[in-house]
Every structure is written in C-alpha cells, then in structure tokens.
C-alpha cells in the first residue's frame, strides 16, 4: 500500500500550547532539552524502533534531529513551525532531569504523522499513551482552515496517522488504546510498518 495523502487542515500556532495531566506536562521542546533527548535517543532499545534505527552519538546529532521536526512543506503559514513536545514527568524533582520522552507531529504534508519515544526507565507506566492522548487533544483543538477538494466537494474526514514497526507490540498497543486503527502496511528500507489512522472526533 502507498502512504496516505491528506490536505493540510490545521493552522499551527507558534509557539504551540502546553497541556498537562496529574502526572505529565507536555510543553514545546526547547534547545535546552537536547541533553535529555540525547539520553533517550542514544539508547539502543529506543533507536531500534525509531527512525533512524541507530542510536544517536552526540548532542549535536540530537540537535540536527530536532531541526527535522520543523515543517518544510505545506501552506506558507505552516512552513518553519513545529508541533514537537517534551514529555515531563511531574513526579521528578525540579533539581533532576524531568524530561522522560518526546512526541511530535513529524510532518503535515503529505499527511500528519505522529512520532514518539520514552526513556526505557519510564516504560510500563502508561506515559506514552497518556502523552499521546494529551497531544491529540491539543492537535484536534487547533484552528482549522477550510479545505475544498478539486471537484468543489468537501474534503474527506480529517485524520492523523502513525507508522509503527509491526514487531513493536508496545507501540502498537499505545496507538490502539488511543483509538488508532490499522489501515494498511508499508515497507521502508528494512522496516516492515503498519499504517495507523485516527479520525478527528
């Protein structure tokens, strides 16, 4: 199956909003988060299930990856903006590193794609599911533009998507808990991926 295509409905603010639950705070990623993100993305068990599949070797490489989260295509008001968030564990004292993961809308064109990673020390706590639910709440509440298809009919129901390695059972469960459904599969390099989709409520 080919990858999805969807018009850009969303109007992305800059900076994006923050949101929190009893346990977590999601806030836009800043440059000072590079060290914490390197700690996460340098772990082989994290890299194995993310693109690229190799652990990061430096904070500079982490900063280069952070720069890829800026939208480079889509409507002019989207380009140069991002929807890239740090997952902050509010139970950790402020004197220690509170960033335990990241998640983002990686791109909006040709389709809005979600990506996320959590430090292995925070696996099994439901943080990825909770953080994704918070991110989706923010995403669906952003302002929308009117999109009309070429035949002057309203465009299709808006969705957001995620690509997940078929062998990554934990991440597949996270997406399913958040309401995503498998709509196809896709081969990218050596990776065998499910295509998940979620309709805007």
Description of the molecule:
The chain is an alpha+beta fold and 201 residues long. It contains five helices and eight strands. The protein has helices spanning 34-41, 44-47, 59-67, 127-141, 169-177, and strands at residues 19-20, 24-28, 83-89, 99-107, 113-118, 159-165, 181-188, 191-199. It has an eight-stranded mixed sheet with strand order 1-2-3-4-5-6-8-7, sandwiched between helices. Helix 1 crosses helix 3. The longest helix has 15 residues, at 127-141.
Give a quick precis of the structure:
It contains five helices and eight strands.
Shape: globular
Strand tally is: 8
- Radius of gyration from the alpha-carbon trace, in angstroms: 17 Å
Strand order of the largest sheet: 1-2-3-4-5-6-8-7
Largest sheet: 8 strands, mixed
Mean pLDDT: 92
Helix content: 10-25%
Which sequence of SSEs, written as H and E, runs from N to C?
A: EEHHHEEEHEHEE
């Amino acid at each position: 199956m080919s990858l999805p295509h969807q018009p850009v409905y969303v109007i992305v603010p800059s900076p994006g909003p923050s949101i929190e639950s009893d346990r977590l705070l999601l806030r836009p990623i800043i440059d000072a988060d590079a060290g914490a993100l390197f700690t996460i993305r340098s772990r082989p068990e994290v890299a194995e299930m993310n693109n690229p599949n190799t652990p990061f070797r430096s904070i500079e490489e982490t900063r280069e990856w952070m720069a890829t989260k800026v939208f480079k295509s889509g409507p002019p008001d989207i380009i140069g903006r991002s929807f890239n968030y740090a997952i902050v564990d509010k139970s950790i004292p402020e004197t220690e590193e509170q960033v335990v993961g990241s998640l983002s809308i990686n791109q909006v064109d040709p389709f809005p794609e979600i990506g996320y990673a959590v430090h292995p020390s925070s696996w099994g706590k439901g943080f990825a599911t909770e953080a994704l639910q918070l991110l989706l709440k923010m995403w669906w509440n952003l302002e929308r533009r009117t999109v009309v298809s070429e035949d002057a009919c309203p465009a299709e129901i808006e969705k957001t998507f995620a690509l997940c390695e078929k062998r990554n059972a934990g991440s597949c469960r996270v997406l399913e808990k958040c309401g995503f459904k498998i709509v196809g599969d896709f081969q990218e390099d050596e990776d065998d991926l499910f295509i998940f989709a979620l309709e805007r409520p």
